[in-house]
Design brief:
By secondary structure, the protein is an alpha/beta fold. The chain contains 20 helices and 14 strands. Helices cover about 40% and strands about 15% of the residues. Strand 8 and strand 9 form a beta hairpin. Helix 12 packs across helix 14 and helix 13 packs across helix 16.
């Protein structure tokens, strides 16, 4: 809590006590700016829990907040725009004094609502004070075409009119979400989806500080920090946002997807939820392949880039692959669930509903996703694995030697294969690393086999959940 405001039970309970404590009123924007300055001086991050933006988005957001600007965040789905907006709550004071019972969290020294003004005029320094935590000073609305003025601004309450108030009495108004966000942060997602007449009403409240409600002119000196989100195409190209409202935002910031696999997977590890029993141990190459699938999808001409490829695709893929490994371990009785290459088939079911394809009528979504997975495996293998004696390994498949693989085979099956093929065992141990258990060795063996197949050194026959690796014919 900032200086001048006691904590816990010592907080002032009346307007006079608050004055004696040395409290000074600040606008929300000044409050956020000063708290951000304190964080930056201390070497702390402006917003916690957002990865991949340290050198791009966060510096721009810090500039906007230091300039006390309202902000519009432009980006495709799944780029943490809403998380950024919610993270701003941490830059508010922990506790805020308000006129007790006021509908708009009124400042005890500058009330804006009619009930609070009347109470302060009547009680003066004896006006009771309540304290609001910063988590309650954030309001969020998803803009939809059917959003009304009553939702955002307010409307005449017929019950209050029926109780004896006149239509032009400010006390007859039931305030909407924007008004109730007074002295806080108001976030509106997908701003261009608001009907134009609602955009005009929002502009009036935020810029002119007045709005007409059913022929009733209400002056609302609201104190807000406004953060909006939008898809870049809707915001810049389709003319779905009125120009004066665009001009209202002081800073426009473009968000983006993770620009490398490491950042993608750091987010996935932080956000995914894996089964607790049996325990799941994901090999490094499976993590990397899952991240590469999304990275490749964002570059693919077969995938709609307007719709975007959210990090939620990577999270869902990661969870589905882990779940497939858990299902196998439960059937086979393996103590540890270790995802393998054969478990990547689960990516199809996880990603199909999340990826929008270009020319959907001409393309099979499952085939497109399977192609992306295969390319991700090939890239990971060729860039990250160097086999010192690949020739001897491929040569060990001469004759009638075959290896069966599948997501339904237990770890013990691969232990037998590795015992029979020392060259494959050496390659698997190199990939899995020292001290690897049966599950990790089995996963590494499948990775090596699939990598050799995708680099055209082994043949593969796939039938349902099973695959068979053998020497290529004509060698």
């Amino acid at each position: 809590m900032r200086p001048g405001v006691p904590s816990s039970s010592d907080r002032p309970r009346t307007r006079g006590e608050l004055r004696s404590a040395g409290y000074r009123s600040r606008t929300v924007r000044a409050e956020v700016r000063e708290n951000l300055e304190a964080r930056l001086r201390a070497g702390e991050r402006a917003i916690d829990g957002v990865l991949g933006y340290d050198e791009t988005v966060l510096p721009q957001l810090e500039n906007a907040l230091l300039a006390e600007h309202d902000v519009i965040l432009l980006g495709e789905r799944g780029q943490a725009k809403t998380r950024l907006a919610r993270g701003l709550v941490g830059l508010l004071d922990e506790w805020l004094p308000v006129v007790e019972g006021s509908p708009l969290r009124d400042d005890p020294f500058a009330p804006v609502s009619a009930p609070a003004r009347e109470l302060v005029a009547e009680r003066g320094d004896d006006t009771p004070i309540a304290w609001v935590h910063r988590r309650d000073r954030y309001a969020e609305k998803l803009a939809t075409p059917d959003t009304s003025m009553a939702d955002l601004i307010g409307d005449i309450d017929p019950i209050r009119v029926a109780s004896g108030l006149f239509l032009d009495d400010p006390r007859a108004i039931a305030y909407g979400l924007v008004a109730r966000a007074n002295r806080g942060i108001f976030a509106i997602n997908e701003l261009p989806d608001l009907a134009e007449r609602i955009q005009v009403g929002l502009l009036n409240v935020l810029e002119e500080r007045d709005v007409q409600i059913r022929a009733h002119l209400v002056r609302l000196e609201l104190d807000l920090l406004v953060v909006a989100t939008a898809n870049p195409e809707d915001y810049t190209n389709r003319g779905r946002l009125i120009t004066p409202l665009k001009d209202r935002f002081g800073s426009q910031i473009r968000t983006h997807y993770p620009r490398d696999v490491a950042t993608e997977m750091a987010i996935v590890r932080a956000e995914s939820r894996l089964p607790a029993s049996p325990p799941v141990e994901v090999p490094w190459f499976i993590e990397e392949i899952v991240g590469r699938v999304s990275q490749l999808a964002r570059q693919s001409t077969a995938v709609s880039q307007h719709s975007g490829v959210s990090v939620r695709v990577s999270i869902a893929d990661f969870e589905a692959v882990a779940a497939n490994a858990v299902r196998r371990s439960l059937h086979a009785g393996d103590a540890l669930a270790v995802p393998r290459i054969s478990d990547l088939a689960a990516v199809v079911q996880a990603a199909t509903g999340k990826l929008e394809l270009e020319g959907l009528d001409d393309q099979d979504p499952e085939r497109v996703i399977a192609t992306l997975v295969a390319l991700a495996v090939r890239q990971c293998f060729t860039e990250r694995v160097v086999l010192p004696d690949a020739g001897a390994l491929v040569g060990s498949f001469e004759g009638e030697v075959v290896v069966h693989a599948g997501d339904d085979l237990p770890d013990a099956h691969y232990a037998e294969v590795l015992a029979a093929l020392p060259a494959l065992a050496a390659a698997a141990d190199q990939v899995a690393g020292p001290g690897a258990g049966p599950g990790q060795r089995a996963a590494a063996a499948e990775f090596v086999l699939e990598g050799l197949h995708l680099t055209k050194r082994l043949a593969k026959e796939a039938r349902g959940p099973r695959a068979l690796y053998r020497a290529r014919s004509g060698r």
